[in-house]
Amino acid sequence: MSSNSGMVFSTQCQTHGHIDDALRSYLSFTTNYKGEYLKNDYDIARCCFKLLESTLFSSHQDYVRRQIVFSLLEEDSPDTLHLIVALLLFDGREHEATFELMNAEGIFPRLVEIIYEGKDDDAGLHRMLLELLYEMSRIQRLRIQDLILIEDDFIRYLFGIIEGLSDDSNDPYHYPTIRLILNEQYMVSTHDPGPDQPPAANLTNKVIKTLSTHGFAFKTFGENIILLLNRESETSLQLLILKLLYLLFTTPSTYEYFYTNDLRVLVDVMIRNLLDLPSSASALRHTYLRVLYPLLAHTQLKNPPHYKRDELLRLMAMMTVTGGAMEVHFGAVDETTKRLVGRCIRVPWLKEHTEGADGESAVAKKLLGVEMPGGMASSLSVVEVTTQKERPGVLTGSRETEEEEVLGKARELEHEVAQITTNDGIGNH
Hints:
mainly alpha
């Protein structure tokens, strides 16, 4: 199979007609022998890279990419679609221009159509389609006219996939689905439109709509996004999860979407992550705090027994104290952190535990040693949450790693100083 597929690209293609013939021969040959030779994802990947690493592709990249994209719009055979989707996925991961071309050519609605209508086709194809939908959507804004075309049934279907699979979030089939980049796209289109684009005021966030009306049927999704937040080290993916949590905790119909035990696990995760974030991750810290307030104020956690109340108050105090070891640990306290912490400690079941007889905040007065700014009572802004972004692939460091790097640099500097001192001593004799 390998040598035969390579023969397809052995001749020189000088015209677009010759290139089209070579591509048709490649797709025809691989599709005809797919059942015999392409039995798993590894075989399909090898077959795809035969084309992507060929002279034909390297010499005519733009044209070949465009032809493959057009093939996705026109092809219906599941076996041929599997090769086309794999080619676009592998190429797009190396060259984002491929995903951008797909968006410009209106591929998103076509992917939605194939995923929904072909849900009973080959599981490998279906999984790869979901990965392609996710990858092309996470690196760019989708067109509003494409988002409008998404039906409620499709969103429910995506949630249903998760419910029908195992609870292991490492399952490769639903791992890309669970991150529902669509929620991000709805938020961006509504609250952070691009240049010269008005906010899409009439665009319904169908992810939140589905959980509002059918959340009782999709509890596994809620369990898994908390599990993912607990494990995730990529900043952009943490932000995706936090943005969805923010909307769930600020939408009355989804205040109690999560099981109480899952909310308690989420509190544990957020306390740990806020303690562990490096001082440089201020934007991510602010997003955690913006989610923490509605989590404590609106969900079942507002009812007794109040979970981790003392730990939360100690965390709030630690994050805003100035001077001493705590400032070394968290870095200089910025005004946004002060404001957001102040909002959290005004959650009634935290506030009643900290108010003194004079009605002032005991946390601010006795623990923090600072007077909180008066703007803390300002309403939460979904725009502030929406506009937090990070490029895919950037990892969030830990405070321990940051401290180790600082110590390592200090040791290097100490070593260099010692060498200079020694050399100077030798030179003086």
